[in-house]
Amino acid sequence: MYALFLEMTDADYVKSKINVEPSGEAFNSDRLAQDGRPFNPLINQGAIACCSLAAPMESSSQRYQKIVNLVSSCATRSLPLNTKVFQSEARTGYQNQKISQALRNSRCIETDYDRDEGLQAYFMGCSIDVDAKELAVIGATIANKGKNPKTKKQVIEQEHAQSVCSVMMSCGMYNGAGNWMMDVGLPAKSGVSGCILAVVPGICGIALFSPKLNEHGNSVRGIEACRLLSTQLNLHVLKKKEKNSSIMGSRFSSGSQMARSTLRSAMGMTEASKPSEDRSGSVSRGKKKAWEPNV
């Protein structure tokens, strides 16, 4: 949603409407920054603002179509709307309604129409079905400066992909972002479905799904799996890489014994992926067992 907002307007306007700082609040908090802007685009208030501001005076269906077109272009296939999840969100999303009204009260959202249609578009955007493999391709597109590595299409402008990646580094793991950067050191975005999307800039995207969450709303096993992968493959963005070394060989492939062993130990072989709602922006439906890597 943040990438779409950047693509449809310009970076200066986006920054005038949405901060890029950690909130220190729960992902679904309705407390805005002192200037009335959302703290960042990767929590509910920021995502709702993106949906409300990216296509002013357009209907919720038109806004949603722009969202799903962009996400589908990153994932390399047309992604479907999970109607049951959308209906549930629209029926019970009282906290998100409260956030939307707070954004209207602060004049971040400028019209009642954009408030209402933007919120419905947000609910639909939260109800897109995507599996772990497709999510990894989305991450790879961000890692590849906005160019889908499979289709070779420039889906997101390079500068905008860099902006998305930058905010993922500081805000993508909710209030666990600091420990994540210390232990894993990769741009990432988590969702309360139990998914984690991590980006290795210039290399790949990594997607994991395991629904047990910690107090911040992040996947417990997903964090541990990413920590082990980062340590064993030397992925931390601030760590010096060995001269002439490459992580693109067999030791980093999804079929490698090391990668499988790492994720087995972190996530457990017996846990199966299943569809689950991700209120932060997507629905992840892992088709593979949770310990199998998608990179």
UniProtKB/TrEMBL annotation:
The record's family statement is: Belongs to the glutaminase family.
Q: Name one GO molecular function term.
A: glutaminase activity
Region Disordered: start and end of each range?
A: 246-295
InterPro entries in the cross-refs: Beta-lactam/transpept-like, Glutaminase
Report the protein name in the record. glutaminase
- Quickly give the catalysed reaction: L-glutamine + H2O = L-glutamate + NH4(+)
Q: Which domain of life is it from?
A: Eukaryota
Any single GO BP term: L-glutamine catabolic process
Compositional bias (Low complexity): 246-256
What does the record give as EC number? 3.5.1.2
Keywords (A to Z) from UniProt: Hydrolase
* Keyword Hydrolase among record annotations: yes
* Subunit structure as annotated in this protein's UniProt entry: Homotetramer.
- Source organism of this protein record: Tetraselmis sp. GSL018
* Classification via Pfam families: Glutaminase
